[in-house]
Amino acid sequence: MCSGEKCTVDNEMTVVKCPTCAKPVEWSEKSPYRPFCSKRCQLIDLGEWADEEKRIPSKEDISDSDIWGETHH
Questions:
Q1: Is 2 annotated as a binding residue?
Q2: 7 in a known ligand binding site
Q3: Side-chain half-sphere of 28: how many Cα atoms within 13 Å?
Q4: pLDDT at 67
Q5: Which CATH code fits 2-55?
């Protein structure tokens, strides 16, 4: 049975889609990079965050705000 990004097989194993390439990933110790299928997909995702291609939605744009300046700690 599948619900969104997760699927349950045999009432025991949960399978999710890799956020980068959409390959199925078993949610267990067998998948050390979960929810990613591989280190490569994990690093691609990290790079997208670092390049600000991804961000957490916010009502206010604080990226250029004074609260992020070096004079405030």
A1: no
A2: no
A3: 9
A4: 64
A5: 3.30.50.10
